């Protein structure tokens, strides 16, 4: 049986695009994960790799980022979170990274995929409490999965 419950714990709060915290009804038996994929192009170099390592040189990647949001399906809307709201929440963060030199961003002086994933998590998690996992691909064949601290 599907039970309707009023969410009253912080994990089920939604911060909408206007920064308002909403308390919502949800279908308590229907837990799911939604995801949204983004790409951004950025330049970087890795200052701590050994002399002669190719990644010491300035170069660029088209990064592929996927955000996974866990939650229960809202009774009225029939979704966990509007994909449009998800995109709007992530857009300023993607905007900071797109066509940037990552090394020049505070906290990204050594922009490995691992440290970039942590940085992205710390930017987005406060805005999206349901954030469960991120995947960040630096090349078609390599990347990281981060599930938070
Ligand atoms: N664990 C990590 N290893 C490497 C990272 C990283 O962030 N975390 N980063 C790099 C470099 O950024 C490099 O640009 C990517 O390296 P690589 O996979 O070797 O890229 P290529 O596409 O050039 O690979 P080829 O197989 O040589 O074409 C390195 N390592
Ligand atoms: Zn690189």
UniProtKB/TrEMBL annotation:
Q: Which UniProt keywords apply?
A: Lyase, Metal-binding, Zinc
- Give the top-rank taxon of the lineage listed in the UniProt record for this protein: Bacteria
InterPro entries given in the database record: 6-PTP_synth/QueD (IPR007115), 6-PTP_synth/QueD_sf (IPR038418)
Q: Which SUPFAM superfamilies match?
A: Tetrahydrobiopterin biosynthesis enzymes-like (SSF55620)
**Top-level EC class as recorded in UniProt:** lyase
Q: Which cofactor does it need?
A: Zn(2+)
Protein EC = 4.1.2.50
Its UniProt entry gives the catalysed reaction(s) as: 7,8-dihydroneopterin 3'-triphosphate + H2O = 6-carboxy-5,6,7,8-tetrahydropterin + triphosphate + acetaldehyde + 2 H(+)
Question: GO MF terms on file?
Answer: 6-carboxytetrahydropterin synthase activity; metal ion binding
Q: Mind telling me what this protein is named?
A: 6-carboxy-5,6,7,8-tetrahydropterin synthase
